[in-house]
Structures are given as C-alpha cells and as structure tokens.
Amino acid sequence: MESKHLVVAVDGPSGSGKSSVSRAAASALGIGYLDTGAMYRAVTWWCLEQGVDLDDQGAVAQATRDIPLEMGTEPTTPSVRVGGREIEDDIRTTRVSEVVSKVATNTLVRPILQQLQRELIDRIATETGGVVAEGRDITTVVAPDADVRVLLTASVEARLRRRSKELHGHDADHAVEATRDQIVRRDADDSTVSEFTEAAEGVHLVDTSDLDFEQSIDALLDVVRREVPHKVPA
Known about the structure:
Layout: E1 6-11, H1 18-29, E2 32-35, H2 36-50, H3 57-66, E3 69-71, E4 80-82, E5 85-86, H4 94-97, H5 100-104, H6 109-128, E6 130-135, H7 138-142, E7 148-153, H8 156-168, H9 173-190, E8 204-207, H10 213-227
Parallel strand pairs: 1-6, 1-7, 2-6, 7-8
Antiparallel strand pairs: 3-4, 4-5
Helix pairs in contact: 1-10, 8-9
C-alpha cells in the first residue's frame, strides 16, 4: 500500500542550492525537512571536539554510533543539536568544512548514518505529513523509493558564485577563487563514495544554473506537483 505521506529526495553537488531550495520547498508544502549533509558535519564536529583522529576509520565509526545527535525538522529554523547543545553554526565553520570529507568518505560511517537517515525520514514524514530530505545519495541509496527524486544541479561557475556570496557576501573574482577548493575538491572527494553528478534512472534533473532562488524553488515544486499531485496540499 502506498504511504499517504509525501517523501521528496533531493541530491546535488555543493553550491547547487539544494539546501536552501529544499528548505523553501518543504516550507511551501507544509512538511518537514532533513539536511543529511549536516549529519556528516555534526559527526565531524563531534570527533574534533572529542579528539577522535579522523584518519582512524574505526574510531570515527564508533563516534558516529555514540554521538547524541538530534536533528531539527522545521525548514524555517534548521537545528542540529548534540547532547542538547545547538551546533548549527559550529558545523558551518571552515574548521569543519575543511575536513568533513574525511567523515563523508568513510565507508564505515556511511551505512550507520544512512540507516539513521532512513529512520528519520520515516519519523519526520509520519509526524509532519511528509519530508524533503536532501544530500548526496538520498535518491539512490537512502530513499530510492521516495515519491519524488530530484538531482538539483548547476554549473561549476554558478555554484562558485553562490557559495562565494554565502561565505563572503559577494562574488568578486578573488572571493570566487577562495571558494573553489571547498566546492571542487569536496565534490571530487565525495564522488568517490556517492553519485550525485548525474541523475540515476527515475531521478528528475533540475538545472538551476540560470535560475534565481525563487525560480529554483518553483522548478522543484513543479516536479513534485507533476509527479504526485494527489499528495500535494491544495
């Protein structure tokens, strides 16, 4: 029997807008939101705080099992808590961004977080009537049976400009170059363990290179409304 809850899976590379667009889409649909990338960042932060060697894959996997992680589900107020402490800002720092790929590419860690993500998707969907879950391998590994699966992408140039504005407040040439390593290297590292550069069979491709923020939201919502109109609130 088909679930009455709406599950939307969104993957994409760094700077494609998937987080902000997914949050806005979830808010427009009146359902919950899950940032799976934030979970990898949270584990990275936790390991740094606990003095766990990120190159010790087994130790990082154990830390992943032990982390007292709580993920917020409200799209307008993203929240990540560890042991009751709000760390949403902490996990976005350069300190974490520079090394998060060590956790994200740890093949012992990924199955642990993927299973937790499946459980969270089920819980959030049940509690809120649906969920937009975004990350790197949600459409293919975590939620391949989602009602709607979308690969949100953009050109490298567009992604660099967006991330530059996000981090530096502008997209001048020097700021763009300062973000290049974070965007290009992280994508290259993460692509060794998950496929998020090409849409898998049954996954809808939404290219936001030439779209502004509102147009990108509309593009995602158009796919949802087209695929599962009976599950979209009037």
